[in-house]
Amino acid sequence: MRIRALVIRIIRQFLRDKRTLALLIVAPLLVLSLMYLVFDGDDYVPKLGTVDLPDAVVQQLEKGSVDLHSYPNTAEADAALQAQDIDGYLSLDGTQPHLKLEGSEPSKNRAVQMLVARTFSDLTSDRAQAGTAGMPKIEPKVDYLHGGEDMTTFDSLGPIFIGVFAFFFVFLIAGVSFLKERTSGTLERLLATPIRRWEIVVGYMVGFGIFMGIQAVLIATYCIHVLGLMMDGSLGLVLLVTLLLAAAALSLGMLLSTLANTEFQMIQFIPIVIVPQIFFSGLFDLDTMSPWISWLSHIMPLTYGSEALKNIMLRGEGWSGIASDTYVLIGISAVFIAANVLALRKYRKI
Amino acid sequence: MATSDDICLRAAGISRSFGGRQVLQDIDLDIQKSEIFGLLGPSGAGKTTLVKLFAGIDEATTGSVDLLGTRLPKLSMLQRIGYMAQSDALYMELSARENLQFFGELMGLGGQALKRRMNHVVELVGLGEHLRKPVSSYSGGMKRRLSLAIALIHEPEVLILDEPTVGIDPVMRQSIWDELRQIRAAGATIIVTTHVMDEADKCDRLGMVRDGRLIAVGTPEGLKQDTGSHTIEEAFLYYGGVRP
User: Fold this and answer.
1) What is the CATH number of the domain that holds A93?
2) CB of B169 within 8 Å of any CB in chain A?
3) Min CA distance, B58 vs chain A (Å)?
4) Is A180 in CB contact (< 8 Å) with chain B?
5) Any CB–CB contact under 8 A between A183 and chain B?
6) Do B57 and A348 touch (CB under 8 A)?
7) pLDDT tens-digit series, residues A216-241
8) Residue A304 domain boundaries
9) Is A42 exposed, middle or buried (0-12, 13-18, 19+ CB in 10 A)?
């Protein structure tokens, strides 16, 4: 009954606090929409300079989507490159094609390199078909196990972002709410009633859980149906993982709030607790990092959450594909919850 | 001499230190049932620490506190204590009614019993017409009265009030003291801290606290007589060793 009283109180406070409600529900949708706009934009059209190229090559280049600029010599092309009018230029070094890139923007480099590579491979295959020169070149046919040619960056990062935002906003709001409970003296008042320490923690988990559930449903359905995020698996599993991730964030936020004395000190945990987790959650390829760094990812809840979300949404896996990640998330939350019950001992021994 | 049946609270040799800093030292005190016992002392003397031990929220480093024959701290005893902290620990977003309901339910009240108690305490502190307003719109005095109502919601046998009249105007203060006497008449024991000397006169018995020690215990009249003082303030100075 005491837990019920606590849950009702938390719900009432939430409904009165419109800003916090907006932070929990509207902010993730807004940020995800922006992400969608950033990552799902049109393909970049590379700006390529040409210096004294054979007509056949230029014609072939023009077949692709490219913004071509022609220069009489390499000196002028270099100047244009310097002024960033072009991303790179193609010239002939005798018979050897030479590509010089501006080089400061990896995505543009890639776009230019792909264009040039495709042009030359098309050229050679055209000649092979015409029977004019050299070896016939075999164009590889590309097949995809997951995703496909139309899979955008947003599709591949989407599951991670769903996890990141569920985690981040719940962590912040739970931490600050529990901090307020402590600094306003209501925690002491609460502990002057016969409520048990674990009842406080469970009451918080359930009360916040209701809003976390609403948030999870909104984020997931918005991303999938409005933003058109790739989704091969079951929505129920996505919600389960999002909720578990939020539970870990809630218990961790509560726990860390006991180490903070002001809201600002709570904000200071973001670069320590949230930002590293975002880096290690799969945005970057961990296989190429040194082993001790990738080991760090094993202690971070977001690693498991985003791995499970990717398995469901991109690889279409069912329960068996996410079971181990789910168990780890439950374990992490259980440890944090127990730690919270212990941490409350600081305020009341019994 | 009071028998053990008449004793509400017995503190024996209690000391409390926080990380090497000694806040309370060797306090022995008996508080009888159905009396208003005042703890008088300047801020920083250790009054709040002491009443937290009495309320069973905190535990003494050494020594023991027995309340109504039970060794503290004990969770079930919190049911029999009404505690009002120095700061108004209220949920600002909620209405007075919702605050009362929340703490009432934590105390195990529900249904009709809770409704009846809520109406009773609200009337007692005179907040009836403001019940549905959010607490954030309350004045300091109204918050203090709501805190008192919350401490009373479960009909506690022992009422522990930390500075209940701070920031309250004289008229309201008078009415709060009238309420305390009514509650005492109903059989409850009241322990109240104050740093206002003239307020101490209203208590049945007084304990003077200074630098973490209990320097004197007695009725206000007795303390004045024993020291040949006209006011409690003079008596306090005497026991504090400032006045001969």
Assistant:
1) 3.40.190.10
2) no
3) 6
4) no
5) no
6) yes
7) 999 999 998 988 888 888 999 999 99
8) 2-39+152-346
9) exposed
Distance (Å) from the C-alpha of residue A4 to the closest C-alpha of chain B?
9
Mean pLDDT of B38-45: 90
Helix or strand or coil: residue B229?
coil
Distance CA B230, CA B220 (A): 11
CATH code where residue B108 lies: 3.40.50.300
Give how many domains chain A has, as a whole number: 2
- Structure ipTM: 0.87
List the single residue in B73, B78, B93 with the smallest CB-CB distance to A193: B78
Hey, are the CB atoms on B108 and A350 less than 8 Å from each other?
no
Q: Which of A186, A347, A350 is the closest to B91 by Cβ? A: A186
Distance between CA atoms of residues B214 and B239, nearest Å: 10
Do A204 and A303 sit in the same domain of this protein?
yes
Task: Say how many domains are in chain B.
Answer: 1
Let me know the angle formed at the C-alpha of A167 by A164 and A169, rounded to the nearest 5 degrees. 100
Tell me if residue B12 falls in helix, strand or coil.
strand
Within a domain: residue A233?
Answer: yes
A286 and A294 in contact (C-beta within 8 Å)? yes
CA–CA separation, B142 and B146 (whole Å): 6
Look up tokens 């599993």; give the residue: A237
Q: Which whole number is the average pLDDT over A323-346? A: 94
Range of the domain at B148: 35-50+76-239
- Residue B200: Cβ-neighbour burial (10 angstroms; 0-12, 13-18, 19+): buried
Residues paired with B39 in a beta bridge:
B193, B207
Please tell me the distance from the alpha carbon of residue A208 to that of residue A333, in angstroms, as a whole number.
14
Question: What six digits make up the tokens of B180?
Answer: 């305390």
Determine contact: B110 vs chain A, CB below 8 A: yes
Residue B187 lies in a domain: yes
Chain A residues whose CB is inside 8 A of the B152 CB are none
Would you state the structure tokens that stand for residue A255, as one six-digit string? 């726990």
Who has greater pLDDT, A289 or B13? B13
Residue linked to tokens 């509650």 = B183
- What is the maximum alpha-carbon separation in chain B? 59
Of B58, B89, B108, the CB nearest to A185: B89
Whether B143 is covered by a domain: the verdict is yes
On whether the CB atoms of residues A254 and A335 are closer than 8 A, the answer is no
pLDDT of residue B118: 94
Q: How many Å lie between the alpha carbon of A270 and the closest alpha carbon of chain B? A: 27
Give A102-159 pLDDT, tens digit per residue: 777 767 777 787 888 888 777 777 666 655 544 444 445 556 666 665 667 778 888 8
Average pLDDT, chain B: 89
